[in-house]
Amino acid sequence: MTLMTMTVKQAHLTVPLAALRSVSRQYGALSVLQDVTLDLHAGEFVSVTGPSGSGKSTLLSMLGLLERPSGGQVFIDGQDAWALSDRAQSRLRGETLGFIFQGFHLLPELSALDNVARPLRWAGISRTQARERAQHTLASVGLGARADHRPGQLSGGEQQRVAIARAIVREPALLLADEPTGNLPQALWGEILDLFADLHARGHTVVVVTHDPLVAARAQRHVMLQDGRLASDQGTRPVLTSPTGR
Ligand code: ADP
Ligand code: MG
Q1: Is the CB of 28 under 6 A from ligand 1?
Q2: Which domains, from first to last, does the chain contain?
Q3: CB of 27 closer than 6 A to ligand 1?
Q4: 215-232 pLDDT, tens per residue?
């Protein structure tokens, strides 16, 4: 698969691209995340694993600003995301974060092209320009020839690639994927994982939630959750050089 070169906005290396500070999340009396502190730096490729119900999806939704934490703070690009106005928070989410949901979440009545163009239209980009960029992004995930197909006319692997194209069309620095191989036959995992490796290589910081060790093995840093707590955090991180030592 050939990928076109893209420039991805990179946060300054000394400020974490995303950080959780003592984040907790409760649903009623149920404590789903407890006191999670985590720094993610630009250039990382991180896997998040843990048993079912350990809080993986909740952790990802905290990083993606999909839900407000019950306690603690979420920093994106150095900004305390829940202290921002709604408008500033939406802008930050749209410009910095790309989310790949478990189960694709494509709109069935729209073509692949229009699904991918939607985030651009929300950002105020003209229809013509949005469709041009969406076409380019679909081509970059190997789906240039499928742009006019609706999700129902595409295979599971193709739908996942459309979902990935939609997540990257605004070139977000941080790409968050929840079980991206979970709904696909194992024969297709390789091509989706290669795609994530390519996205990482072209500058996206990537966080992949998975319950599969083979998927996790593609990442360089491995975060493990157990009962809503950070149970381990291992692997390589980019070397950070900063005169202030931060
Ligand atoms: P994982 O992705 O690791 O399987 P989740 O983060 O989805 O775990 O969920 C962790 C726990 O939180 C589970 O027990 C789940 O049932 C519960 N949970 C998740 N979302 C909600 C919700 N909206 N309301 C109530 N409980 C929830
Ligand atoms: Mg989950």
Answers
A1: no
A2: 15-235 (3.40.50.300)
A3: yes
A4: 898 999 999 999 999 999
